[in-house]
Amino acid sequence: MTLSKGTKKSVKTPKPFKKLYGASFIEEYGRIESARARRFGTTYSILIIEPTGLDLIAQGAKESLDDVSRKAKKFISIIIGTLRDCDIVALTSTNRLMVLLPQTDYFGAFVLVRKLKRGTGSFCKGEAGLSVLYTHSTFGIDGLVFGELLDCNESRALLQRESLWERLGLEDKLFWEIVGNLFAEPHSDNYNTTFDAGQGYDLSEFFMDRVNELIIHEIKRAPRRRGILYFSTGKINNSLPIIKAIADIGMTDTKIFLIGEQVDEEVNLGNSLPIYLDDPRLNETSFTIFLNEDFGYALFTRENWGAAFSCYHTSDLFLVEGLINKFQREYSLQEQL
User: Fold this and answer.
1) pLDDT at 66
2) N-to-C CA span, the chain
């Protein structure tokens, strides 16, 4: 094409965030995805991302990509850069992103949140007062229609804000620092409790063994349910009662790990895997951490004088998730899920 003198060629500038949609689009897509999942027996997840201290749309403006501030564009770019091409991202309010994750189960969404936290971590630290809340729900576990998944996300957002993980600001602390904080003060609520067990107390020292037996029973009851289980034993040897109990589970989709110092050269662990760690803190504090698609649980025990133990246990899902993330990263373990 020949341009006449003085005529400038019009260049169309692409809109920013080409993959960012509006609320009505993702709601309709969610209804379609729910119908598809019911028909073909598949699953998908919904992820809600809510930054505090950063409005994704300028106050008083329409929900338009043109109203996104420079800082918000940077934040959204980090999010989109972490997602797959098939994931659908929508800007649904002044401070909320919604992501639909096709073919993604509970643990798939959990792993994605971990990646997103790493991706946005440096950005959030550089912006004073900025924090981000991530919640997710999964079709089939948390609901069978799109609206039920959204309701589940709303409930989990409230629970997460009340979690010890958020209230104590544990995100920036190390694993053993977190454990120390949990023992530092008494807890007594619906999700977190500190107590003493052993000689002279209502609960005997065998309470911890009973808890582990109940977890193993839960795994045997639903062997196809995905999960992850860490047993800290101090020293790993063939005489541990937990080894026989694990061997009786049979085939399971729960990944089971025994953590401690290697004593015997050959230990028959059945369908569990050893993580050999020579760390004196593992002799001072033993723990059980369990997470599956339905719930999370953690128990920490420290031996006191005689046969008594100081104990802390929690069913705070967000605290359990955070403890698993910290433990895996700080001991350079494969991020198994």
Assistant:
1) 56
2) 57
| Amino acid in position 96 | R
220, two tokens: 């045997």
HEC sequence for the chain: CCCCCCCCCCCCCCCCCCCEECHHHHHHHHHHHHHHHHHHCCCEEEEEEEEECCCCCCCCCCCCHHHCCHHHHHHHHHHHHHCCCCCEEEEEECCEEEEEEECCCHHHHHHHHHHHHHHHHHHHHCCCCCEEEEEEEEECCCECCHHHHHHHHHHHHHHHHHCHHHHCCHHHCCHHHHHHHHHHCCCECCCEEEEEEECCCCCCCCHHHHHHHHHHHHHHHCCCCCEEEEEEEEEECCCCHHHHHHHCCCCCCEEEEEEEEECCCCCCCCCCEEEECCCCHHHHEEEEEEEECCCEEEEEEEECCCCEEEEEEECCHHHHHHHHHHHHHHCCCCCCC
Per-residue pLDDT of 77-95, as tens digits, reads: 899 999 999 999 998 877 8
Structure tokens at 243: 């080894």
Cα angle vertex 34, ends 32, 35, to 5°?
65
- Which stretches of the chain score pLDDT less than 70? 1-19, 58-68, 264-265, 268, 270, 335-337
**What is the pLDDT at residue 86?**
92
- pLDDT, residue 271, reads 75
pLDDT of residue 248: 80
The pLDDT of residue 5 is: 44
